[in-house]
Write a structure and sequence with these properties.
Radius of gyration: 18 Å
Number of domains: 1
CATH topology: Rossmann fold
Distance between the termini: 30 Å
Organism: Mycolicibacterium doricum
CATH superfamily: Vaccinia Virus protein VP39
Oligomer: single chain
Helix content: 25-40%
Protein name: Methyltransferase FkbM domain-containing protein
CATH class: Alpha Beta
Largest sheet: 8 strands, mixed
Amino acid sequence: MAVARMRTGHRMILDLRSGTEWLPYYSGEFDDRRIRVARELMRRRSGIAVDAGANIGLWTVPLALEAAELNRRVIAVEPVPVNTRRLVQNLRLNRVDEFVDVRQVALSDTSGRTTMTLREDFLGGAQTGNAAVFVDDGADDSWSRTEVATRTLDEVLDDLGKPPVSVLKIDVEGHEDRLLAGAQTTVSQNRPIVFAEWNAVYYSRRGIDVTKATAPLLRAWDYRCLRRVRQHTWIVDDLFRSRLPLEDVVLVPEEDAAEVVDLMHRVVGDGR
């Protein structure tokens, strides 16, 4: 365990046995460029930010620092108890815990219970790390497991008084389609900018085409998919015609696509 000073100025308690956490410790960075875009969008728009799949707070803490400057809030959702405890520690370390509502649940399309597997980071001996919803295809049989509660994002926000959402970050290891299915009111009414990381391997194991599982919702919401096709080039892509895999993308309302593409080029594409 060690405390790292990140290049953006905040500090993080990191477990160097974790593949997710050791690189930020040595580099002082974690997804910095996309986080800068998210923070700029928070400044340009009213509403809160939601971190779905918050893990130990590598996105949550910088979003909370922005929220503190704007006198707003962040909702951080993380199902794994050990990750949630570290998340809270990192928020307190940076004195932004009062600006964050932490919810220890897995976001899905229904409320209930599900089984999660504790994956590579934990196998290496780390106390915190990556986890994914159990897939009953035999490949998950060797992983340690934990039972967690599930809720929809719409329900979580209802409990908090339905705050408007401007930015939504999603990193839920192959459960993105079900999270979005449980966030239909939130997305259709608030039209947030969505930073999403799709894990196609999990969809393949579930026997699902990731694009076909997601594209109908995006079409119904009139959302577009922004993706990087070269090092410094971002495009608005048509999910229904694209042959490119759905991986790290930004989902935006059509009316905001041009603005966000320009912002991605200036903040992400130029390497600053």
